[in-house]
Write a structure and sequence with these properties.
By secondary structure, the chain is mostly beta strands. It is built from no helices and eleven strands. The strands form two sheets. Strands 1, 3, 5, 6, 9 and 11 form a six-stranded mixed beta sheet that branches. A five-stranded mixed beta sheet has the order 2-4-10-7-8, with no helix packed on it.
Length: 139
Amino acid sequence: WLTLFIRDRSLNSAGPAAPLTEPVINDISADRGWQTTGILLDSGMTIQFQYLSGEIRDGETILRGPSGSGYICGDSTCCEPMPEVQRAALIGRVKDHLLVIADKNTIEVQESGELQLRINDCDEGLFDNSGSLKVKISP
């Protein structure tokens, strides 16, 4: 028999980061900035993302899923971490390298370090956000 263990980091995100050797489930809050996942990644590694559930509210806009609102600021003076990506889309970073996740299923990591996630919204705009997205991250 083969048993698959999935670590659920949404229940216990405290503790040291560890290499991604098995699927991990994370809840990403819409009203917080960069959130640690507890996952250490190596440069060149390919990881899988799967949206499991949840919805977020960005102001008056309700979003079901990690794709974003459809609005793109697109200007270098915009305050979103990734102004060229849809607002409220799921994004990530490893050290200083930013990752567009949104509805992509596969991401190749460019830098080694701990994975952090958030929605693409201005830090000063997080106050009117609510809800969370549950995602599974797999090697």
